[in-house]
Amino acid sequence: MHHLRAAGVSLLLDTRGTGVPGVIHWGRDLGPLSDAELVSLADAMVPAVSPSSIDVPIRLSLLPSFREGWSGRPALSVFRDAPVDLSLELVGVEASGSGTASGIVIRLTDAAAGVDVTTTLELSSEGVLRLRHAVTNTGGSALGVAAASVVVPVPDRAAEVLDFSGLWTHERRPQRQTLGQGVWSRESRHGRPGHDNAYLLAAGTPGCGFGHGEVWAAHLAWSGDGVVWAERSPLGPATIGAAELLAPGELSLDPGASYDGPWTVLVYSDAGLDGISDRLHPWVRSWSTIESPRPVVLNTWEAVYFDHSLERLTPLVDAAAEVGVERFVLDDGWFTGRSDDRRALGDWFVDPAAWPDGLHPLIDRVAASGMDFGLWVEPEMVNRDSDVARAHPDWILGATDAVTWRWQNVLDLANPDAFSYVFERLDALLAEYPIAYLKWDHNRDLLAGSAHRQTSALYRLIDAVRAAHPGVEIESCASGGGRVDLGILERTDRVWVSDTNDPLERQSIQRYTSLVVPPEYLGGHLGIARAHTTGRTATLSFRLATALFGHAGIEWNIAEATPAERASVAEWIAVYKRERGLLHSGRVVRPDASDAAIVSHGVVAADGSRALFSYAALAAPAAAIPTPQRFPGLDPTRRYRVRPLVLGTDVFTLQDAAPAWWEAGEVVLSGAVLGEVGLPMPLIAPENAVLVEFDAVD
């Protein structure tokens, strides 16, 4: 028996016998149990035998299969000329772990079939469980791998399923349903997680919210094709699972070769969805590549699009420096012949027409203004109208006449020559220019059955770039939020949450993306008043309040903004610089609301000394006078000075008088009162937001 415990979570494995170990319990901590108690519990959990079922008690192992009598989705599927019915025997169980994680490595074999399986489990000090399977071909012929899935049991009370869907500029849309009999499965065949990625599959007690209920959640830490599911069967326990989604025949192992499946990240919470973030955010921060405060970014895309020249960009550089920007990023349009999105992708040489002296004059101007420099690239893609595609059509993934997407094809990074070319060009750019940051884009689905090798090659490419240039930071962008996962996060320092800067869309997108990814990774930009992607017009105050929470930036030609607008932007940047230590280290809190038109979220310092909350109206409220807003997460034993935080521009309200405490400018109340009773808030118009700051006074 093996019992792993951390941060209120228990994982109990029955490793007795000669077969595949099984999970007896994963969830709330069971407390310290003696060896005798562990054995008694495992024996007591053997279920009854049904008169119309297998003639021994059903037992869910870590690799459930037909051989065990499991008729649900199997974990492992391998074949030679036909499917191989594995009979795995336990070779050994050993303790493992890395850093502050405790772990177990389970070694299994079917010598007759020529297959070894190694299952690794790690439970971090934050209570995050990681699980993966590795398959090794010990036979004398090729072994096909169709699936190596993680399957874990959840209790019957986990009867409601939450996951996500979406589309370009509208990512991470939540969807819920009751888990009936059968399988709820979400598959991604985009060659990237995609805008409609399930992202996080959470099975919870009915009605679970941000601050209440039990939740068992799974996230696939992989940047290619994947599947997550929940399954309930009358013939066995309910389960959740995840796996890389492999195309038929995509993965074949030569004798002696191995396949390491991606990690599935599993999280239990007895404090609702916020409890999931309470475990994931500190865990991600424990291995994060981020080493410095997140600089204020200005990205040139929605400011100038493809219109590049030193003369065009100099006023923008000067305006960026004036308001306090710290990083200036040159987006698409800088390379040879790139006048629109139909040509030149893949020709990674600075355009001599737009930049006769290279990028040096622009970078010198940026550096002289006190900013560092970033550059947009899309290394995995190619236009057919490009020098590289004309010279090397064999580098294009799939058929050369296959359908294009944004007028581009995929460059086959698994081709060693294509890989070398892309690395050489990135290496040359980073060697010639002082580039601090790459915005790494990926603007189309693969639409080819090569996601495994392409994703593996992508990881090798990013690793090679970072090894050669360890100081460079990388943002994962995939036409916005199409590749946001914990696999890519191990190799990057930022994710572009969505291609929309519309604050109304961003309120929801950022809210749900932050369930898994900490705010310091979430790129959020202040856009122009009329959003590029929706045509909706938003007030400056709403745009400022929304873009503050995350890794803040600007995507707007502020050289064309009014002096008053630039003054407000400068004040907003000053607030961001003052508060980013809190925003990027504290606990994210999302109060549950009875009115879907009102959303609130905040960040509370780890020591409870300070907090910052946003209160936004996305639509007309259900009541003329909304109920007081509660502020959970504060220390209930401390008293807080509560004050409005104004970002330098007025918020549109629909009230004859503000709440008394707001008019007074502050109020002092205990964290218990603020979390349970709350405070009345201003009657803000739809598509507006206000900020509130909390400072402990004792």
From TrEMBL:
One annotated GO molecular function is:
alpha-galactosidase activity
User: Pfam families given for it?
Assistant: Glyco_hydro_36C, Glyco_hydro_36N, Melibiase
What EC class does the entry list?
A: hydrolase
Q: What is the lineage of its organism?
A: Bacteria, Bacillati, Actinomycetota, Actinomycetes, Micrococcales
SUPFAM superfamilies attached to this UniProt entry: (Trans)glycosidases (SSF51445)
Task: Give the catalytic activity.
Answer: Hydrolysis of terminal, non-reducing alpha-D-galactose residues in alpha-D-galactosides, including galactose oligosaccharides, galactomannans and galactolipids
* One GO BP annotation of this record: carbohydrate catabolic process
Q: Where are the transmembrane segments?
A: none
Keyword Signal tagged: no
UniProt source species: Orlajensenia leifsoniae
Residue stretches making up the Glycosyl hydrolase family 36 C-terminal domain: 601-685
Q: What is its EC number?
A: 3.2.1.22
What protein does this entry describe?
alpha-galactosidase
Where is the Glycosyl hydrolase family 36 N-terminal domain positioned along the sequence?
20-252
Question: Which CDD domains does the record cross-reference, listed alphabetically?
Answer: GH36
- Keywords, alphabetical: Glycosidase, Hydrolase
Family annotation (InterPro entries): Aldolase_TIM, Alpga-gal_N_sf, Alpha-glycosidase_related, GH, Glyco_hydro_27/36_CS, Glyco_hydro_36, Glyco_hydro_36_C, Glyco_hydro_36_N
